[in-house]
RNA sequence: GUGGCCAUAGCUCAAUGGUAGAGCCCCAGAUUGUGGUUCUGGCUGUUGCGGGUUCGAGUCCCGUUGGCCACCCCA
């Protein structure tokens, strides 16, 4: 039996990695004053069909539940966010700085970096339309990756501005109904031959190509880069007006994060969506917003491809899973004594394990070693003393059994 | 949704159309109170599944399911 296509088993090692990644995400988000929230995994299909971008609707993971309701496993968090914000925004001081780590789903043929299920960190700053919101959000995206051990030689944030393009379209008297279509063509231009794009763009081809070739200047983006530079983050960003993003709802600054090697899919992406919450709440609540999403699959690939990052995460995994003590029951008649200590030591917060049944002493040391225990406590002929052994140095100390807990505490404190 | 490559032990992979194997992992012993090395032994298979060709199929053919890669598309 295998898991369903596009779904993953998380064996202890995988789970440890995922936990380390989530821990990093949470730690960095909290550093920025973002608070965590979440919504339902399952939503009415209606909500998602109406509110999600049309790109997403064709790949919904949907079905009919036993009550006859049409339901969908969430493909993204934004519709839920809009609903929740519209319903509860008055309870919160602005701006809202919210993050979430939803598991999202889509029904689509899987391939590398793209499964039917993934965890996706979402960070949204809601209720502030100033450039300061862009600066803060993009700095957060950068610091999330730095927190995983990735540096400017590993990834780059490409910055763009939809308003720059819509201004251009307006200047060429393009009717607003066609903006989205043209933005899609520009978005796609990087992935298809020039003449094909030119054909689609028609008379706009010349001015658009001039900008894509570096002829465009955006004062807003230059200001944004300058402010990021004040934080020492200039090496992580690059203005690149060819970024438009596929989703229709972006209204201003948009950005995507890529690995420098150019081997992977986008690591993260986001932008400003000032009108979306208003649209999704049918005009009940109008709040400007900017946010981005970062998936665990592609980021996991980047970390594994980056030795420094891989080692950093491995260290987090180790420190989260290390066993403090393994009790070695050398003489079965002292099992009761050891079990008394187990409870006492665990109550004191130590991570403690011991052999459930009789086992040869050598085997017990092997087990302690392979479980990654830092030290062993041996119960044998020395009783009422126990022999404490630090595995890394092989040094042993005899400790009176009743003083073990306080001895360990004193040793940890020094 | 389209195309190419692939599927053998828990894992990584061998095996001219002719008896299905190795390494790793796991378990046990060498070692009855001391771990990372080493040595010995043991366990594990409807060769993804279903048909066909053949005296004989892991191997060739067809179908099917799953995986990888490239398109399409994109969180």
Layout of SSEs?
Elements: H1 12-31, E1 35-36, E2 42-44, H2 45-51, H3 54-57, E3 61-64, E4 70-73, H4 78-88, E5 96-100, E6 103-105, E7 117-126, H5 131-147, E8 155-161, H6 162-171, H7 179-188, H8 194-201, H9 205-215, H10 219-230, E9 237-239, E10 253-259, E11 268-272, H11 276-280, E12 289-295, H12 296-305, H13 307-321, E13 325-329, H14 335-347, E14 352-353, H15 361-370, E15 375-379, E16 385-390, E17 395-400, H16 404-413
The protein binds one RNA strand of 75 nucleotides through residues 2, 5, 53, 55-56, 58-59, 75-78, 104, 106, 108-112, 114, 118, 120, 122, 246-247, 265-266, 269, 293, 295, 328, 330-331, 360-370, 376, 378, 380-381, 387, 389, 391, 394, 396.
Largest sheet: 9 strands, mixed
Helix content: 40-55%
Secondary-structure class:
alpha+beta
Question: What does the radius of gyration come to?
Answer: 27 Å
Number of strands: 17
Helical run tally: 16
Could you explain how this protein is built, in words?
The protein has 414 residues and is α+β, with helices and mostly antiparallel strands. Helix content is 42%, strand content 20%. The protein has 16 helices and 17 strands. It has helices at residues 12-31, 45-51, 54-57, 78-88, 131-147, 162-171, 179-188, 194-201, 205-215, 219-230, 276-280, 296-305, 307-321, 335-347, 361-370, 404-413, and strands spanning 35-36, 42-44, 61-64, 70-73, 96-100, 103-105, 117-126, 155-161, 237-239, 253-259, 268-272, 289-295, 325-329, 352-353, 375-379, 385-390, 395-400. Helix 14 (335-347) links the parallel strand 13 (325-329) and strand 14 (352-353). Helix 1 runs antiparallel to helix 5. The longest helix is centred in the N-terminal third of the chain and has 20 residues, at 12-31. It is elongated, with a radius of gyration of 27 Å. The mean pLDDT is 89. It binds one RNA strand of 75 nucleotides through strand 7 and helix 15.
